[in-house]
Design goal:
The protein is of the alpha/beta class. It has a domain at 56-177: Rossmann fold (3-Layer(aba) Sandwich). It has helices spanning 17-39, 72-85, 100-112, 123-135, 161-177, and strands spanning 56-61, 88-93, 117-121, 141-144, 153-155. Helix 4 (123-135) links the parallel strand 3 and strand 4 (141-144). The longest helix has 23 residues, at 17-39. The radius of gyration is 35 Å and the shape is rod-shaped. The termini are far apart. Keywords: Membrane, Transmembrane, Transmembrane helix. The chain crosses the membrane at residues 20-40.
């Protein structure tokens, strides 16, 4: 049997060695570049959270909350003003017996939470305003109902829901314009 001399490369490699090596290096580089591109962190999406100003307007309502016919236009006006000015708005419902004495606890809590202006809507919240306003003269109150105005209590006596909404809106906008 006669032996055929080998030429130094396996029979399955038909490409000359230098070209084969460069092809392998190029394939590895393409794989690394593709992996890097796929794993590279994307740009951060814009924040979804609203940036609010330092001022806060709070609404105290009866047990039915902003669903009360007299509270709904006030809350609507406050929300519209918040969108325009970035003043933070929030509401709280009087829980338990719907009395002025019960509402006083919630009004005092809103003062302690540093609400810049406190809107009171409904019989119980409005009835609680005079006593709490006297106890906290630095706090500012707006009563949508029958109560005597004082140094830190403004009274809105409007009946028309659109007028009530507009006045609530304007009061929150004024809060944004006041010096901090």
């Amino acid at each position: 049997m006669r032996q055929v001399p080998r030429r130094g490369r396996p029979s399955w490699v038909s490409v000359p060695p230098p070209v084969w090596r460069w092809s392998l290096v190029a394939a590895v580089l393409v794989a690394v570049a593709t992996a890097g591109w796929l794993l590279w962190p994307a740009d951060e999406p814009p924040p979804r959270q609203r940036e609010y100003r330092a001022e806060t307007a709070c609404l105290l309502t009866g047990a039915q909350g902003v669903g009360l016919p007299e509270a709904s236009p006030v809350w609507s006006g406050m929300q519209e003003a918040s969108l325009a000015t970035q003043v933070k708005v929030q509401f709280l419902e009087v829980d338990g017996p719907q009395t002025g004495a019960q509402a006083e606890t919630f009004l005092a809590g809103l003062v302690q939470n540093r609400c810049d202006v406190i809107f009171a809507v409904g019989a119980a919240p409005v009835a609680g305003v005079p006593k709490i306003a006297a106890r906290y003269p630095q706090a500012r109150f707006v009563a949508f109902g029958a109560v005597a105005p004082s140094r830190n209590v403004s009274v809105v006596e409007a009946i028309d829901p659109e007028e009530i909404r507009r006045q609530a809106h304007d009061l929150v906008v004024a809060l944004a314009r006041s010096p901090s």
